[in-house]
Amino acid sequence: MLVQQILKSKATEGVFTVKPGSSVADAASVLSNNRIGSVVISATGKSAEGILSERDIVRELGKRGPACMSDKVDDMMTRNLVTCSCGDKADDILEQMTEGRFRHMPVIKEGEMVGLITIGDVVKARLSELSMEKEALEGMIMGH
Ligand code: AMP
User: Fold this and answer.
1) How many domains are there within the chain?
2) Predicted TM-score of the model (pTM)
3) Residue 22 pLDDT > 70
4) What's the pLDDT band for 20 if we cut at 50, 70, 90?
């Protein structure tokens, strides 16, 4: 299974972004309003300058308290983004996410961000693929 197949199977298209210079409170509103776990920091909506996850915010909240909510996202985001492309294999993405301990990956095509997949998207897609394989094998064994 490839990343492009997972992207197609997602209910929502596009990526939630905030612009560099936005406050952490603004980013938290985007997370909360859309019930998502991370937001990409992007000047154009197509570039990916960094990513800010609920974990980054909670970590700073725990360390410094609510004062961190008025910080700029630029100071809290992860800049060394790991991205993938449409032709990457789901299993490889799962391994990278597990080893790197992150759950979100922007998808880049020809230099532009075209989507974002989560570890949940990959697991869901793999489970449905396994279930189809199981049915096909059962069908072969039973002679259907
Ligand atoms: P997550 O598990 O995705 O909520 O994020 C855990 C940590 O990894 C946070 O510090 C994020 O900023 C960071 N992170 C999330 N996604 C990525 C990614 N694709 N590349 C690099 N770091 C990431």
Assistant:
1) 1
2) 0.91
3) yes
4) very high
| 22 ligand 1 Cβ < 6 A | no
Q: In terms of residue numbers, what domain contains 122?
A: 3-142
Half-sphere exposure of residue 43: CA atoms within 13 angstroms, side-chain side: 2
Q: Is the CB of 103 under 6 A from ligand 1?
A: yes
Q: Whose CA is nearest to atom 7 of ligand 1?
A: 102
* Residue that has been written with the tokens 């990278």 in this structure: 96
Q: What letters, b where the CB count within 10 A reaches 16 and e where it falls short, cover 114-136? A: bbbbbbebbeebeeeeeeeeeee
The CATH number linked to 12 is: 3.10.580.10
Whether 60 is in the pocket of ligand 1, judged by its Cβ within 6 Å, is no
pLDDT level of residue 78 (50, 70, 90 thresholds): very high
